[in-house]
User: Which sequence fits this backbone?
């Protein structure tokens, strides 16, 4: 049985755990499907109604590359610096982890830079999560353009210019919203101070974790745990405060990544404690965390190191976050450098 | 052009960069963006076709608006329709009554916004409980019910192989039921 649709390459979700989106070429429309395990939702964009495609480059590709590269180097470094030699089972395990991330790194590099694609129709704008790689998106747009042109006619540069001037004459131009020129009403004036503190504590905690991964000092471990708790609390408050504010979007995502690392770190700490109790076979110290920390170093040194390396991931994230938080917004830069605006025709 | 805005900062993109097929920095956030626009961007919603012309004595009038001139007949019921009442779906001209009826009965595939994939449900329900096999005593009869009840129900409009999935689910479910019968038989025999 023919479905009448031609599947376009690419699949993606708006965020982790959400419905999988795909695109299909129909006879007179582009079909966007969102499917969960049992239910499939459809949205049709008729070629005659499509007004525009907007493709915005994202930094996901760069972030993924840095993360994969960091993990790859970390795993290889751990494997080659093992006291029991690089051929020991633990070193082999680290090499396997490194190899896995090398495959992911190569896959990410081959796929190319990432983007966010939006389709504009008379009823609104919709994100197309399946078009997240620039190369693939451009390829698909090249396939779609003739189909749309067939229904709507072509729009050459001269016609486009004339239409834009005509449109500007009909619609008064609304000045773009910038940080200092926001519409009145409920405006969040939060400028990102909590983010800066959280990123700074994350960087310090990460540095402590990295140091302790090799030094293995229970006191440093305790400070790292306290630092992660402080970072977590600050991070959650910062994420709540940033809602509706004009701060950089990347700050939120970096904070979310730090919170995920803290979650993983605390989980590792929890298991470290359990394994230590089991290893020293002394349930009486189960609630004596200081004694447990001291025992953990000797009873589960490898797990101790893994936990601290997880904490160390906060160091690069904290530095990235601080860099983003301290960099002025492009709006502010353009406001300072831009020439005075010419009056537009009403 | 307020509709063509940057996906990152939601500010209008520079019009001189439209249809250049090149990435240019967004004027507000400096993030590289490209915009491919089409003639529909300049079409006003409810433009020329919305207003229906007045009817003269020699012309047919719209079934729903007797004062308006009919421009087309409904392809389902044959009623004359003015430009306002004419609803074009995939090249077919329909009146609102036929459109609603078609939507309710599921006859107009182009209006469907959601489908339940019973074939996927059956297959998942047949395979997933194998991880915790005692649950197959409940899931296997459920799979048999789903397969029989929804054998003719429409599946995904884009994916093929609905009946294959149903058949595989049925075979697995029957095997699970057979396994349970065998288990019960041997347990009873062992007790004797």
Assistant:
């Amino acid at each position: 049985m023919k479905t009448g649709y031609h599947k376009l390459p690419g699949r993606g979700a708006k965020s982790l755990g959400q419905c999988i989106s795909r695109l299909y070429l129909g006879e007179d429309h582009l079909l966007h499907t969102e499917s969960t395990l049992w239910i499939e939702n459809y949205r049709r964009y008729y070629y005659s109604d499509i007004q525009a495609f907007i493709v915005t480059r994202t930094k996901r590709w760069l972030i993924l590359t840095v993360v994969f590269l960091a993990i790859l180097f970390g795993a290889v470094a751990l494997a080659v610096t093992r006291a029991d030699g690089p051929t020991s089972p633990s070193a082999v395990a680290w090499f396997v982890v490194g190899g896995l991330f090398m495959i992911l790194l190569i896959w990410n590099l081959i796929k190319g830079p990432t983007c966010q694609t939006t389709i504009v129709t008379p009823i609104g704008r919709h994100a197309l999560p399946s078009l997240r790689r620039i190369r693939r998106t451009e390829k698909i747009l090249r396939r779609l353009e003739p189909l749309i042109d067939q229904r709507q006619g072509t729009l050459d540069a001269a016609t486009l210019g004339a239409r834009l001037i005509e449109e500007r004459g009909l619609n008064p131009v609304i000045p773009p919203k910038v940080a200092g020129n926001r519409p009145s009403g409920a405006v969040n004036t939060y400028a990102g101070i909590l983010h800066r503190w959280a990123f700074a504590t994350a960087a310090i905690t990460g540095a402590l974790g990295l140091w302790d991964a090799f030094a293995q000092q229970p006191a440093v471990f305790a400070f790292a745990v306290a630092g992660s708790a402080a970072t977590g609390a600050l991070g959650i408050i910062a994420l709540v405060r940033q809602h509706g504010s004009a701060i950089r979007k990347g700050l939120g995502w970096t904070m979310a990544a730090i919170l995920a690392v803290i979650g993983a770190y605390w989980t590792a700490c929890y298991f470290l404690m359990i394994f230590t109790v089991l290893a020293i076979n002394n349930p009486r110290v189960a609630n004596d965390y200081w004694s447990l920390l001291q025992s953990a170093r000797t009873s589960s040194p490898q797990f101790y190191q893994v936990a601290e390396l997880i904490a160390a991931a906060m160091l690069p994230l904290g530095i990235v976050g601080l860099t983003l938080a301290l960099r002025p917004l492009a709006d502010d830069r353009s406001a300072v450098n831009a020439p005075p605006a010419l009056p537009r025709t009403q | 052009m307020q509709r063509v805005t940057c996906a990152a900062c939601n500010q209008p993109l520079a019009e001189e960069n439209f249809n250049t097929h090149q990435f240019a920095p967004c004027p507000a956030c400096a993030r590289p963006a490209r915009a491919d626009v089409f003639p529909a961007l300049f079409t006003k919603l409810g433009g020329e076709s919305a207003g229906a012309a007045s009817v003269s004595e020699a012309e047919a009038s719209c079934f729903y608006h007797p004062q308006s001139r009919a421009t087309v007949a409904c392809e389902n019921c044959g009623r004359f329709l003015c430009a306002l009442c004419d609803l074009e779906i995939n090249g077919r001209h329909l009146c609102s009554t036929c459109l609603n009826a078609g939507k309710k009965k599921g006859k107009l595939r182009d209006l469907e916004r959601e489908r339940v994939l019973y074939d996927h449900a059956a297959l998942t329900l047949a395979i997933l409980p194998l991880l915790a096999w005692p649950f197959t005593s409940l899931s296997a009869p459920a799979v048999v019910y789903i397969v029989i009840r929804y054998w003719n129900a429409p599946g995904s409009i884009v994916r093929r192989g609905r009946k294959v999935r149903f058949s595989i689910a049925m075979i697995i479910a029957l095997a699970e039921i057979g396994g349970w019968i065998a288990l019960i038989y041997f347990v009873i025999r062992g007790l004797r």
Observations:
- The two ends of chain A are 56 Å apart (CA to CA).
- The first helix of chain A runs from residue 60 to 80.
- Chain A touches chain B through 61 residues (CB under 8 Å).
